[in-house]
Design goal:
single chain, about 10% helix, mainly beta, 3-stranded antiparallel sheet
Length: about 210
């Protein structure tokens, strides 16, 4: 509640003092920023930690398909979070954590877990560009993750990767990010893991309280 109140107060003040500030491409702005002023009511350039969680009422899903293009499994996770850092003046940063919880799949009757390689020691490079302020595109590189499926005959591990993926940033207070990812399979039996997979998820940015691309 305190964070939301700060955002409201900051945005109200910005409407009065930042109306003449010019906007610039490839900058991350926020009411929580402390850098140079951005245009309109978009706050100030923000550098620091960025966190997000699944948009309320949505889930993250991975659909694996075989070489014939038929779906062999679908994994659904109702809880997921993302954490990273950004340098606001360049809109370049890193994803340092992507977690999943409460996952399920019809092909994994005894349970399923999902994880990624994103960490502080193995960050995924990320960058954003403005399309039409305050919205834009986020590109993430070097994505890799796996799920472990528990079946009646044992555990199956499916590992996937993608060199890069791009999604849509909808600026606001809060902002949202939709990131569809086409994944190539690294390891795992085709009967469960397919030959490739597609992952989708829409995240609400929870910190900072607002994000605008200008």
């Amino acid at each position: 509640m305190k964070s939301n109140t700060i955002c409201v107060v900051a945005l109200s003040a910005l409407a009065l003092i930042a109306a003449t500030a010019p906007s610039a491409p490839a900058k991350v702005c926020s009411a929580s920023g402390s850098g140079e002023a951005c245009g309109g009511t978009h706050g100030f350039v923000y550098s620091g930690t960025v966190e997000g969680s699944l948009k309320t009422g949505t889930s993250a899903s991975l659909t694996a398909t075989n070489a014939e293009g038929k779906s062999v499994s679908t994994i659904t996770c109702v809880s997921s979070s993302v954490k990273g850092t950004v340098t606001g003046s360049t809109a370049v940063g890193n994803i340092t954590s992507v977690t999943f919880a409460n996952c399920s799949s019809a092909v994994c009757p005894n349970g399923i877990t999902a994880s990624t390689t994103a960490s502080s020691t193995n960050p995924w490079p990320a960058s954003a560009v403005t399309v039409t302020a305050p919205n834009g595109t986020l590109t993430v590189e070097k994505l890799e993750g796996e799920f472990v499926c528990s079946t009646i005959i044992g555990s199956v591990t499916c590992r996937y990767s993608a060199s890069s993926a791009s999604g849509t940033v909808s600026g606001g207070s809060p902002a949202t990010v939709g990131l569809p990812v086409g994944l190539a399979k690294i390891t795992g039996p085709e009967a469960v893991c397919g030959s490739k997979a597609d992952w989708t998820g829409t995240y609400t940015v929870t910190a900072p309280c607002s994000v605008y691309l200008t």
